[in-house]
TrEMBL record:
Record function comment: Involved in the gluconeogenesis. Catalyzes stereospecifically the conversion of dihydroxyacetone phosphate (DHAP) to D-glyceraldehyde-3-phosphate (G3P).
Catalyses which reaction(s): D-glyceraldehyde 3-phosphate = dihydroxyacetone phosphate
Similarity field: Belongs to the triosephosphate isomerase family.
Location of the protein in the cell: Cytoplasm
Keywords noted in UniProt: Cytoplasm, Gluconeogenesis, Glycolysis, Isomerase
Gene Ontology molecular function: any one: triose-phosphate isomerase activity
EC number: 5.3.1.1
Protein name as annotated: Triosephosphate isomerase
Gene: tpiA
InterPro entries: Aldolase_TIM, TIM_sf, Triosephosphate_isomerase, Triosephosphate_isomerase_arc
Organism: Sulfurisphaera javensis
Source lineage: Archaea, Thermoproteota, Thermoprotei, Sulfolobales, Sulfolobaceae
Length: 229
C-alpha cells in the first residue's frame, strides 16, 4: 500500500456482481495500468474469486467476521477471503459495524494471514485508538455525508486535518478520507489536507461513465501527491 491510495467500494449495487461487475472492473483495471497506480476494489464476497481471475486489481472483501473455524453459519472468515483471492478487507464500515474486540481479533487474524486491512471510522477521535491496533489504513467517513454528493474535503475539512494529526502519532498507518467525494477536485483537496488517499462508492458505482470518474480521481490524486512532496 502506497499513496495515493484509491479504494472503490462496490457495496451491493446492481453492478456490484455478475457481468456488470466484471465490466466495470476491467475499465478500472485499464486506468490503473495506464497511470501505474494500484487501485483497490472492495467487492461482495461472492465476487472475490471471479474478479481475482478476471482482473489485476487489488481485491478486498467488504467485511470479515472475527469468529474462528466452526459452527458459524453465514460467517465470512479471513481464511475464506484469502482462499478466494482477496488481498485484504474493509472492517467496521458504517453499514457493517462491529465491536472493538471483533476489530482487534479480525486484524490479528488478517495480519497472520498476510492480508491488508482498512478500518472504517466515523470521527477523528477514534483515529488514534484504532491506529494503535495497526491496520494498514484508516478510512474516516462522517456518516451524514456518505452518498450525499457533499464531499468531506469541502464540507468538513477539519475532520481530515484533525484525523491526520491523530494518525501521525502511530507511524505506519495510512489515512484515507471518504464520504460524499464526487469530483477530482474533491480528491485533490482531501489529499492536500493530508490524507493519503480516498475511499469512494456511489460516485463510481452510480455514474453513467464510471471510467471517466475513476480517471478523474486518479489523475487528481497523483497531482495532489506530487505537489505535496
Amino acid at each position: 500500500m502506497k499513496p495515493p491510495i484509491i479504494l472503490i467500494n462496490y457495496k451491493a449495487y446492481e453492478n456490484s456482481y455478475g457481468e456488470k461487475a466484471i465490466e466495470i472492473s476491467k475499465k478500472i483495471e485499464k486506468i490503473s495500468k495506464n497511470y501505474g497506480i494500484p487501485i483497490i476494489i472492495s467487492v461482495p464476497a461472492t465476487m472475490i474469486y471471479k474478479l481475482s481471475q478476471e482482473v489485476e486489481l487489488i481485491i478486498y472483501a467488504q467485511h470479515v467476521d472475527s469468529v474462528r473455524h466452526g459452527a458459524h453459519t453465514g460467517s465470512i472468515l479471513p481464511e475464506m477471503i484469502k482462499d478466494s483471492g482477496a488481498k485484504g478487507s474493509l472492517l467496521n464500515h458504517s453499514e457493517k459495524k462491529i465491536r472493538l474486540d471483533e476489530i482487534h481479533e479480525a486484524l490479528t487474524r488478517m495480519k497472520n494471514l498476510g492480508l491488508e486491512s482498512v478500518v472504517c471510522i466515523d470521527s477523528y477521535e477514534l483515529v488514534h485508538p484504532l491506529a494503535l491496533l495497526k491496520p494498514d489504513a484508516i478510512l474516516i467517513e462522517p456518516p451524514e455525508l456518505i452518498g450525499s454528493g457533499r464531499a468531506v474535503s469541502k464540507e468538513r475539512p477539519e475532520v481530515i486535518t484533525k484525523a491526520v494529526d491523530e494518525v501521525k502519532k502511530v507511524p505506519g498507518v495510512y489515512l484515507l478520507a471518504g464520504a460524499g467525494i464526487t469530483t477530482g477536485e474533491d480528491v485533490y483537496k482531501a489529499i492536500q489536507l493530508g490524507a493519503d488517499g480516498i475511499g469512494v462508492a456511489s460516485a463510481v458505482m452510480k455514474a453513467e461513465n464510471p471510467e471517466k470518474v475513476v480517471e478523474d480521481f486518479v489523475a487528481n490524486a497523483i497531482k495532489a501527491i506530487d505537489k505535496r512532496q
